[in-house]
Structure formats: structure tokens, C-alpha cells
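User: C-alpha cells for non-reducing end alpha-L-arabinofuranosidase, please.
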Amino acid sequence: LTASLTLDPAFTVSPVRRRTFGSFLEHLGRCVYTGIHDPAHPTADADGFRADVVDLTRELGVSTVRYPGGNFVSGYRWEDGIGPVDERPARLDLAWHSTEPNTVGVDEFMRWARTAGVEPMMAVNLGTRGVQEALDLLEYCNIESGTHFSDLRRANGTERPHNVRMWCLGNEMDGPWQTGHKTAHEYGRLAAETARAMRMVDPDLELVACGSSSSAMPTFGTWEATVLAEAYEQVDYVSAHAYYFEEDGDLASFLGSAIDMDRFIEDVVATADAVRAAKKLTKRIHISFDEWNVWYLHATASKPPTDTWPIAPVLLEDHYNVADAVVVGNLLISLLRHSDRVRSASLAQLVNVIAPIMTEPGGRIWKQTTFHPFALTSRYAVGDVLRVELTSPVAPTAKFGDTPLVDAVATRDAETGAVAVFAVNRSVTEPLDLEIDLRAFGAIELVECVTLANPDPHARATIDDDGSLVPIENPDTKREGDTLRITLPPVSWTMARLA
Ligand code: AHR
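Assistant: Done. Predicted C-alpha cells:
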């Protein structure tokens, strides 16, 4: 079986957006406490942040980090998390049935973001709160001095403004599980008025309205249309969230998850553009895909026992296998090929909670299988996304019908001439040959070709293993004139670099 991929530097989708490689830190389970923050850890800094987590965050190549939620933000009082730590109140966190100690708040997060070299992306609470509290937080973060909240920030030890550019107007407000859940019309009005007021403080903010929590939501489509009918002029992005998992042993359909992501993105684009047409505007709304990942929604605990309100319980600690990493790599391929409209994305989440990075409290740190495709794509997807021509054999899947077995995208850095191809083989059983037509590039050589695969696609990396579940050099590559042929093992993710 053979797939073919034709590349030409003349045909591009858009520049690679660095914000495609964002992630997410929520006050949820052990993501913040005993995740990034663990004062008892030997590498902890003065704020209690683990340096080893910062190092892996950098190695992962994370660009932006969304904070502090997630469902958590819809009941959050940001003022609880500022000032002297020992005077901060503990609160009930209704979203995750936990106790929030508020040891980490906005100033600590901003210091962590600076140390980790990531851009902060803040979310405001539009569940239990509204316009005023969003303005207060914006004033605290972005105003230099001379007002109540900016001077409070300075009194709390941060002289210069945090200068946060990107703001999410609430989180998943379409979901009945959300504290302060709203109808599309109620939310659209609130988002528009919050955005309008925030822009009175700073017209250049980049603002994200909540789209749908998944393409399977009963309100998907009408939610976006209604919210944007209210808020189109005031916002820059609409969000999209999607989580995938292997159901009932149907690995073939699970491997096709990027098909759902492709359709989801294209449907949101169509809906936003329809609102634009009706309003006779030229401005286009882009997508902030600010939660995406593999998440075995029903397999790991997502709430502690109802008679307890623990601090930092073990929640959503999914343990990923090779197939999960292949799907993560494929979802990145989908995000990249839509870079003209998907201008920001966040892998949910960063540490311990459905995460590529895992920590032991006070102890070791380790990488899940999903770490590798993300880190390599973030490092080597540079320059422009190419508009590729791909033909692939297909096979039937229960969820998606006839499904192309190979999916791929490519990038090219016009400055260096470096080309990177990212590809997956979604066949459960068959190796496939991928023939890459390089004739448009002239002289170009293969630099490396690495593949992540395993005879057992359900094999998982563990804290104690031998480190073998990582991408390794693919020995089955052959150059014939202008064609590069790579054999892709079943259930695999591959990166080929040329220069
Ligand atoms: O990422 C975990 C949760 O998934 C987030 O809190 C919520 O926004 C989504 O439902």
C-alpha cells in the first residue's frame, strides 16, 4: 500500500503560528499543586515552583499557557489569590469538588510563565461573575500604576504590569456542567459587553469568545452563530474544545480522530463566516482551539468522593499509550493545516492532569508518550505551512466511513530552506509506504527521519521504564531521484526533516 505526498514551496496555507503550541494550566487535581508548584521539591524556587517542570515545559516547546481554567474559572475569585499567602482564604471549588488553598494566584503564575518562557493567556470568570470583576483583573494585570488595582499589584511586589494580551471570556459556557451556565443569547450579550468594557481599558487586547465544548454538543453550530451575532464586532476569536479516546476497542476509529477535528474547525469557520456575511463585515474571526487532547473521560476519576473536599486530589491522571501519541501527533497535523484560521491552540493540560508531563509529589518527573510528537512538531514546524497534495489508501472505520490511512502536513522555513514533514499511519495492521515528491525543491537532502511506533500500540511509558517508547530513527527510508520513500509502520507517527 502506498500513499503519495507532493510538496511545493509555492503553495502555502499561512505562516506557522507559534501559538499553535500552547498548553493549559488549570487549578484542577495535581496540575498546579504538586504539579508546577511543590515547595517541598528539591528543585523548588522561592515561589515553590519546580525547576524540573520548567525545564520539561521548555523542552516540550510550549508557547502560550492558558490559566486558571477551565471549569475552575467559572467560580473563581481572582482576588483570593493575591497578597500575603498566609492571609489568603481557602474556598470550595465546585467544578472539581476540591478545596482551593489559593497559594498560587495571578502574580505567582505570571512569575512562573516568565521563568518558563511562555506567554500567559488569562481566562475571566463569566460564570458567577461579570463585567466589573473582569475589568478589575485587567486593571490589576495591565495598568502601570496610579489606580486601586494597579497599585495593589505594585504593593504585592510586581512593579511592572503583566501586560497580558490574550483573554478568554469565560469557559465552556454552553455546558450544563459549568457553574453559571448560560444560554447562547445570555452568554453572547455578556461576552460582548465584557469585551466592549475591556477594550475601553486596552483596545489592542485579543479576546476569545466561548464556542462549543465539543462538536457533539446539541447546541453546536447554533451556539457559535448566536454568540457571534451578539459579539462578532467585539471579539477576535471563538474557542473550540475537543477530547478524543478509544471507545469499546475501536482503535481504527480512534486513530481517525483528526477527521472530527478537521470537520469541527471547518464548521466553525463556515459559521463565523456566515455571521460575517450577514453583518457585511470584512474582519474575520479566528479559532482559538484552547482545549484539545486525548482524554479517557470515563476511565480516570474526575471528581473526589462527594463527602470530601480535598486539596489537589488525583484527578484526570490519564496514562497514555503509543496510539494516544499517534492521535496527538495527528491532531497537531490538523491544527497546522488549518493555520490560516486556527491562530491559537492549547494542549489540555500541561502537568499531571491529562498531561504530557507527570510528577511525583516531592519526587521524580517523567514524560508520557504524548510528549514526543508535540515537542518535535513544536521544534521543527517552522516558517510556512505548505498546502500539500496527499493521496492515500482508505479503509472503512465505524465512526468515519472510508478513512484515509495516511495523514500528513509539511512546513518550510523560507530563510533556511528547511522542510519538515509530519505524517501518521492510521492503519491498525498494515505498514504503508509514503512517497514524497520533492521535485519542486531542487537539491534537498534528508536530515533525519524518526518514527514513534510499537508492536503493541497500547504500550505505555512509565516512570520506571527503559525509555524506549520514543521516536527513533526510521531505517526504512529510500531516496530515488526526486522521491523520498518512507515505510510507516502501523499505528505510527513520523517526522522527516530535509534541508
Ligand atoms: O481540561 C479539563 C476540563 O475539560 C476543563 O476544565 C473544561 O473546560 C473541559 O470540560
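User: Anything notable?

Assistant: The two ends are 27 Å apart (CA to CA).
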